[in-house]
Amino acid sequence: MDSAVLDNVRDNALTQAAMKATGLTLEELAANVKIEPGEPMFPETWPLSFPAGLFPDACLLAVHPLAVMLWLYSNNAEHHPDCQAAAGRYLVKHEYALAYSDGVAVQKGRSTGGENAGVERREAAQQKHSEIIERWHSLGSRPERNRAAIIAERLGYTSKHVREVLRKANLR
Question: Which residues sit opposite 98 in a β-bridge?
């Protein structure tokens, strides 16, 4: 493989993910991993060849896009214009699927999108609960049976919600 091609590919997120997953350098991967284009519309099905024991089978998901990228930058790609377009779409799809861990891209699902929103909702709920409990203690002169309704009216919550918060705090 030409060193200019390797230099172009070295900083790509897919390359970094493959190197991190396998523990091999780009030169080792480029020398040992080969791909042959098959069906032009489906690069996912292109057969990948590599020496046995080079890396575990679990790394195939990270290595296959790198092999497609290396083929796309090689001189062989010029003879397959249909495969070039499909390979480009395939690589874009895999770059979108990457998540970042320790500053290096790793292959991961997209289920991490709601983590920050969940943390914010829990913090807001905790703040509401502490406000309800604070109001409960400040209304100590009122009878207990009336406090939940007063708190609900003042804070804009339902009395049922206030009673649930108080029950969870063991105050009612």
Answer: 107
